[in-house]
Design a protein that fits this description.
Blueprint (H helix, E strand, L loop, with lengths): L5 E7 L4 H13 L2 E8 L6 H14 L4 E4 L11 H12 L2 H7 L3 E4 L5 H10 L5 E6 L7 H8 L4 H7 E2 L3 E2 L4 H4 L3 H27 L9 H4 L8 E4 L2 H11 L4 E3 L16 E5 L11 H18 L5 E5 L6 H14 L6 E2 L7 H4 L5 E4 L3 H7 L6 E5 H8 L13 E4 L4 E2 L13 H21 L1
Parallel strand pairs: 1-2, 1-4, 2-3, 4-5, 5-8, 8-9, 10-11, 10-13, 11-12, 13-14, 14-15
Antiparallel strand pairs: 6-7, 15-16
The structure holds zinc ion.
Zinc ion binds next to loops.
Length: 443
């Protein structure tokens, strides 16, 4: 039967993102033959590695490949890992020729392996779709300007990888001499060895960064269509790729709550990396406990607090943090630190309330259940994101609570949204593309 199915290629650089994308893979699995490529980014983290292998097994996707982009046991690249990853990918040249994918969905063309696949391996008529599954990385000052009408070209002129405003770059010039040498070597490896010399030997061409690759940290113009999970991304990329080519989807909600049953658990999602040197650690932990106290006083039925660490938090820091938190837990709340990296949307139903800092994790929580309250705390977000922390989850229906001043940061007059399911968006794109090609042929 598989021979009759359309063939879809999914390229996701950070394998952990696949955890949250599992529901959409399930959604399209019966209609498309799926191939997945990802990299070994952060697979040195054993629990992430285990989870990714579990996804591979559970989804029963035969063609699931992990590109060795990074050194094993590290999240860094080296001269050797560059050669290894090129060699690994090169061997797939004939695989792509044979497969003739109908569609390719990639979370960017920024990384060299994605660029090679998109520009060299796929057939000309394969529909290339960009996918954004994380909140828009744009600096929030610039995002506010965007909402006030600043043109996208002007924004791109003023930023580097979206999140840094250019004038801040002076800081980097002051870096220590040794660090500058290391960075220069890295740059040579990236710009010349990875993107020019090896590709010239293997493919007879270069894959250098295009005009907006580094500015967007996403893509310049590899895609004709873009699918977005977040509303802010939908609006932003709509201006770049054209609104008619940009789609807003939402993950399938599998809420199975029994409304009659009272929930007695809350979940905290830690979305940043805490360590001994974090200078805002005490401030954040104090507010973490204050919020728990407030929540429990309002909802007496709450008995347990589950604590979910950031997936990239190192074991050493997890240990430090858990011990520190236990020490600070003066009122002896029942906090459970056990780790499970299930998709957040799949576990939301277990909780009365989920809280954390302004991050993509809260979005996936929001879309997992109709009966859970999702709260973003200012105290946990302000150090990282500043006073405009709430723009990161703009228009996602998440409660923005300024727990420092006990008030709410409500955004008024938000535009309404029309969602598609992931499958609907792909079908729509195929239809539009077919139509465009017909017109093109007539001309
Ligand atoms: Zn539910």
């Amino acid at each position: 039967m598989d021979n009759l199915k359309k063939k879809i290629l999914i390229c996701i650089h950070n394998p952990f993102a696949l955890v949250n994308l599992q529901p959409i893979i399930e959604e399209i699995k019966s209609d498309y033959e799926i191939t997945i490529f990802t990299s070994n980014y952060f697979l040195n983290n054993q629990s992430i590695h285990k989870k990714v292998l579990e996804i591979k097994k559970n989804s029963q996707i035969k063609n699931f490949f992990i590109i060795p982009s990074y050194k094993s046991n590290s999240e860094k690249r080296s001269f050797f890992s560059i050669i290894k990853s090129h060699y690994f990918l090169y061997k797939f040249k004939s695989f792509f020729k044979k497969k003739k994918f109908n569609l390719c969905i990639s979370d960017g063309s920024f990384f060299i392996w994605q660029k090679i696949i998109l520009t060299n391996f796929l057939e000309k008529n394969c529909i290339r779709i960009g996918l954004t599954h994380d909140s828009l990385n744009l600096h929030l000052d610039e995002f506010q300007k965007f909402l006030n009408g600043k043109k996208i070209d002007d924004i791109l002129r003023d930023v580097h990888k979206l999140r840094q405003i250019k004038k801040n770059n002076n800081k980097f010039r002051k870096k220590k001499f040794f660090l500058r040498i290391v960075n220069t070597i890295k740059r040579i490896e990236d710009l010349y060895i990875d993107r020019q010399i090896i590709p010239l030997i293997l493919y007879g061409k270069k894959f250098i960064y295009m005009k907006n690759d580094l500015k967007t940290a996403f893509d310049t113009n590899s895609f004709k269509y873009i699918i977005n999970f977040f509303y802010s991304s939908f609006r932003f990329w709509g201006k770049y790729y054209g609104e008619e080519n940009t789609f807003l989807v939402k993950p399938k909600n599998n809420c199975g709550c029994n409304i009659k049953k009272k929930k007695n658990k809350i979940l905290f999602i830690s979305s940043f990396l805490w360590n001994e040197e974090s200078n805002s650690l005490d401030f954040e932990i104090d507010h973490f406990f204050k919020f728990i106290e407030k929540t429990i006083s309002e909802h007496k039925e709450i008995l347990e607090i589950d604590f979910r660490h950031h997936p990239m938090q190192s074991d050493k820091n997890i240990k430090f943090f858990n011990e520190y938190l236990i020490k600070k837990n003066k009122k002896e709340y029942n906090i459970n630190f056990e780790h499970k990296y299930d998709p957040i949307s799949k576990i939301t139903c277990e909780y009365k309330l989920i809280f954390g800092c302004s991050s993509s994790a809260l979005y996936f929580a929001k879309h997992g259940c109709y009966n859970a309250e999702i709260v973003c705390l200012k105290s946990l977000s302000v150090n990282e994101l500043g006073e405009k922390y709430y723009y990161k989850l703009w228009n996602e229906g998440i409660i923005m609570y300024d727990d420092i001043n006990n008030s709410f940061d409500n955004l008024d007059n938000l535009p309404s949204k029309e969602y598609l399911t992931f499958k609907q968006s792909i079908e729509k794109i195929e239809k539009i593309d077919k139509h465009k090609n017909l017109i093109y042929k007539k001309i």
